[in-house]
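Folds vary. Our protein:
___
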Amino acid sequence: GRVLFYDKRLSANNSISCSSCHQQEHGFSDPRQFSVGFEGGLTGRNSMGLTNAKYYPRGHFFWDERAATLEDQVLGPIQNEVEMGLTLPELATKVGAEQFYQELFTETFGDATVTSDRISRSLAQFVRSIVSTNSKYDQGIPVNFTNFTPQENRGRQIFNGVGNCNACHGTDNFVPNNVFNNGLENPYTDPGVGGITGNPADDGKFKVPSLRNIEFTAPYMHDGRFASLEQVVEFYNSGVVDHPNLAPQLRLP
């Protein structure tokens, strides 16, 4: 899975790999607002960081949660006409033509047969291995955050208290068990989950990304509209737009 993740041969013209839009040094996200595909086209949404994907309780992926599993998700960009531009038969043929992949698949699956299913299972397992552990937050839990600076502890108190940030970023992975409309605009130019379900009650609802490695995953939101965390915080302080589907957590005082 790791080898496949970094291999540009998974795109139609051998120019784009999974890692092109999910860069390790940026928390496995893309520092550009929209990612560049194999022919220079731009994606419609910002590339979400992959850290701790295995711990998302809803188990669905993409901003609109259209993929039911990581196995489904990892094949999506490969088949996308903007991102990587391959069909699944073309993918299996290209990968299977490489001798070292025949050896790796034999070592992993018992024989050299390369299929899109085996590719997806391998990539998904690699993504599940991308975890954030032993952060300053993790180190602080057993010592009641005495390792935090006064400013960091004040931020933690606001996050869990009057700021109510933990209402949508709960758990130690800082994700909820729901999708939310967070009031970016009205109407939404991108319907999010509503574009998949066709239900107006889902318009403007998006997957809530983990805050793990958040320092490295700018820009923020599904459309990458905010360049800094300071802008994100100020948006929730003063910029939330009323919408019929606005998350109840954002209607509270």
Q: What stands out?
A: Residues 31 and 218 are 6 Å apart (CA to CA). The chain has a mean pLDDT of 96. The beta strands are 179-181, 205-207.
